[in-house]
Design goal:
Elements (H helix, E strand, L loop, with lengths): L13 E3 L2 E3 L3 E3 L11 H13 L4 E8 L12 E2 L6 H12 L4 E7 L15 E2 L3 E2 L8 E4 L2 H21 L3 E6 L5 H6 L14 H19 L4 E9 L12 H8 L6 E6 L2 H4 L12 H4 L2 H4 L4 E3 L6 H9 L5 E4 L1 H5 L3 H6 L14 H7 L33 E5 L3 H13 L2 E5 L7 H6 L9 H11 L5 E4 L6 H7 L3 E4 L3 E3 L20 E2 L1 H5 L8 E6 L5 H11 L3 E6 L14 H10 L3 E4 L1 E7 L2 E6 L4 E6 L1 E5 L2 E3 L2 H8 L3 H4 L4 E4 L9 H14 L22
Parallel strand pairs: 3-4, 3-14, 4-5, 4-6, 6-10, 7-9, 10-11, 11-12, 12-13, 13-14, 15-16, 15-18, 16-17, 18-29, 20-27, 21-22, 21-27, 22-23
Antiparallel strand pairs: 1-2, 8-9, 19-28, 24-25, 25-26
Helix pairs in contact: 1-2, 2-3, 3-5, 14-16, 14-23, 17-21
The structure holds adenosine-5'-diphosphate (ADP) and iron/sulfur cluster.
Length: 690
């Protein structure tokens, strides 16, 4: 197939200074928890993006000097020539497919504590270090420090050239780099020529751009990555005021503008808080003030939205991090005339969370992300079947759907049985809750792919018993029967059942999703899960007219969502909806319409009135598995060679874990898996002392 001519504009080459990008797909720098620590994995992942058609593929942030050491985070690093090797490896992997390789040079200044290098952090003014409440301060840079800093940046640009990069990104964004700290009135209290007026505060960034152009601009394109609005009103940059004025002052200096909003939690907003293309209103002015190519991000997954953004003169290139993670082959699919095959990002930020946790990136939609090298998994290719086996997959949540889809792709005969009248399991159910509509993409992508597969049959309204599984006559049985939220209050804070909490006295998220509701009046949501569902329950119930209080044993509401960059947004939304948030409160007991909670700060008991919705933990739905096991030799006699549990039925977790488990099941079928052997390649460092 060939592409729809409507999308031709996305495939027009574009000149960026002395280099030319083959198309308009720009994989912006994005962190991935691999970087310098898992370099082979990082290189293979970037190479896969280029293979998938991204015309520009960039590194994540690359620290360029030991006075800004982002340990414990695992980004790329270029402190001296010893770091060139693996970065050159990435360039080669990208060039192999005709794409341009870009490096984002970053010095985090007072954002980081230099835990490894032990250098005193630096910045425009004396300031406490921001990361992880590190109890140390950055010192104000004097004139010599500024001269040194400029030299380090220039040296890094020259090293980037040596490594083979085509593009160098001079980074001013996310309130996390020295030039952004200099520009910020909040961070810069200097009274010299680098402080006070906008022109002065912008001076360092201007110098960096000029010096980078001078050092490498003859052969490399120089991109200004610049946040035009900090979304904090007049305390920060606003695009209508200083954001615009600053950009106008240096509009023609770089070869390209990559503009966005700051900080990271605003730039990478989840689908719960921002729709596709949400940065357009902030950056629309940029093309009016510069003749250089412009790009922005905004979780673009629809080629029509991309074309519109270009045709309306908002941008020239489509920047993307998450859409390129969820589908490294997004550009190829548009080019080959099959945009319906795009695996659309759901905007959940699990990818971000894994970077924040300093572990190789995970993606809810793309289970092969970060497995390209260590497991040899390709996002679009999977080995053909090696037997004529028929596989029965029970349960069509994300785990069952992914298993059935990939088994079908391998060519196996697959039957997918689902108890409910609709496929999708938890993603269908949760997608009807406030803000979670995009969860349905997990289901829709897989159903779409399976639609054409004659070897995959799906049966709804088919709750299977052990006897029916035996009668079915499959060679392999894959149980993806999910998990159920518990009523008894057991979870992280309570290791024993909470007196008074049971099926008759409280509701769980499953009950709510089944349509049950508390009686009219106040509701207490007890959130000991700390991810998104507690807050979502509160939002739903307040929208239905209840007076809602959310209590959590943690020190902040939805505490784990700080890793998905959502915690601040969630807290704000709950407060705006009029929901009362009580932290450091654990559920002690329920009697009648009273909930007695312990305030763990005061050690006092408090009494709250209302019906309780409890979000604590889930138990696997493994009844069918246990029934099959109880049949002893029965399954074997029925010709069943294996029975396996996957997804929440084995270990309740995030949706990303379920799609991964489903994928893994399909890959491993008919292979010899030795559970005593590490199931992936590991990175080994060259040792000097051993
Ligand atoms: P996961 O996240 O692991 O994919 P889900 O809870 O999303 O799990 O999906 C599990 C699905 O399995 C649900 O749609 C549920 O209706 C279905 N299911 C559970 N038990 C059976 C059964 N015995 N037969 C058929 N389907 C089942
Ligand atoms: Fe998108 Fe979620 Fe995948 Fe990140 S983890 S790329 S947000 S689907």
């Amino acid at each position: 197939m060939t592409r729809d001519p409507r999308y031709d504009i996305l495939f027009e080459p574009i000149k960026i200074g002395p280099v030319t990008a083959p198309n308009r797909f720009y994989q912006v720098p994005h962190c991935n928890g691999m970087g310098r620590v898992f370099p082979d994995s990082m290189i293979a992942m970037r190479g896969m993006k280029a293979a998938g058609g991204w015309g520009i593929v960039c590194t994540e942030q690359c620290d360029f000097h030991h006075t800004a050491d982002i340990t414990p985070y695992t980004e790329t690093r270029m402190w001296d020539d010893a770091d060139i090797g693996y970065l050159a490896g990435m360039c080669n992997a990208v060039h192999e497919h005709g794409s341009l390789a870009g490096v984002e040079l970053v010095h985090n200044g007072h954002t980081v504590g230099n835990l490894y290098s032990r250098e005193i952090p630096i910045g425009p003014s004396h300031r406490p270090v921001e990361a992880n409440h590190y109890p140390g301060q950055a010192r104000a840079m004097d004139k010599q420090d500024i001269r040194d800093y400029r030299r380090w940046h220039r040296d890094a640009a020259l090293r980037s050239k040596k490594a083979g990069f085509d593009l160098v990104i001079v980074y001013h964004g996310h309130d996390g780099t020295v030039p952004s700290h200099f520009l910020s009135k909040r961070q810069n209290q200097r009274t010299d020529e680098y402080g006070e007026s906008l022109e002065n505060r912008l001076r360092l960034y201007r110098e960096l751009l000029e010096e980078t152009k001078d050092a490498v601009g003859d052969t490399m394109g120089v991109i200004a990555r610049f946040a035009v609005d900090e979304m904090m009103g007049s305390d920060g940059l606003e695009w209508e005021n200083e954001g615009r004025e600053a950009l106008e002052m240096i509009a023609e200096l770089p070869d390209m503008w990559d503009v966005n909003v700051s900080d990271w939690s605003n730039d990478s907003m989840t689908s719960r808080f921002a729709p596709e293309g949400y940065q357009e209103d902030y950056v629309r002015f940029v093309k009016q003030v510069t003749s250089k190519p412009v790009s922005t991000v905004g979780r673009y997954t629809s080629p029509d939205a991309m074309v519109t953004a270009i045709k309306q003169g908002v941008v020239d290139l489509i920047g993307a991090a998450r859409p390129s993670i969820a589908d490294p082959f997004l550009p190829r699919k548009i080019e080959e005339g099959r945009p319906e095959d795009i695996r659309e990002c759901i905007g959940c930020n699990i990818c971000v969370a894994w970077d924040m946790l300093s572990a190789p990136i995970r993606c809810t939609q793309n289970p092969t992300m970060s497995e390209e090298w260590r497991k040899g998994w390709h996002p679009e290719q999977i080995a053909q079947k090696t037997s004529e086996s028929h596989i029965l997959v029970v349960g069509s949540g994300p785990a069952g759907l992914e298993a059935a889809h990939q088994l079908g792709k391998r060519g196996y005969q697959v039957t997918l049985a689902e108890a409910r009248g609709e496929p999708g399991g938890r993603v269908s159910r949760e997608s009807r809750l406030p803000g979670l509509a995009a969860w349905a993409r997990v289901r829709d992508y897989r159903l779409g792919q399976m639609r054409e597969m004659v070897n995959v049959e799906t049966y709804l309204d088919s709750e299977l018993t052990a006897e029916q599984v035996l009668e079915f006559g499959a060679d392999h049985v894959c149980l993806a029967t999910g998990a159920t939220w518990q009523h008894d209050g057991v979870g992280r804070a309570n290791r024993y059942p909470v007196p008074g909490m049971d099926r008759n006295t409280i509701l769980t998220p499953d009950d709510i999703m089944d349509g049950k509701r508390p009686a009219k009046g106040p509701v207490i949501v007890f959130d000991d899960d700390h991810y998104y569902l507690g807050g979502v329950m509160a939002e739903l119930l307040v929208s239905e007219g209840h007076d809602v209080t959310i209590i959590t044993p943690e020190t902040m509401v939805a505490a784990w969502t700080r890793y998905t960059l959502e915690q601040g947004h969630i807290e704000k939304r709950l407060k705006q909806a009029g929901i009362t948030i009580l932290t450091r409160r654990n559920m002690l007991r329920i009697s009648g319409s009273e909930a007695v909670v312990l305030n763990t700060l005061t050690d006092q008991e408090e009494t709250l009135q209302g019906a309780v919705v409890s979000v604590t933990m889930r138990l696997p739905n493994d009844g069918l598995y246990n029934d099959l096991m109880a049949l002893g030799e029965g399954p074997l006699k029925a010709g069943i060679k294996s029975i396996k549990r996957i997804g929440d039925c084995l270990g309740p977790a995030m949706i990303a874990s379920a799609t991964y488990e489903g994928h893994r099941y399909a890959r491993e079928l008919d292979t010899n898996v030795d559970i005593d052997v590490v199931p992936f390649k590991r990175e080994h460092h060259k040792l000097e002392l051993a």
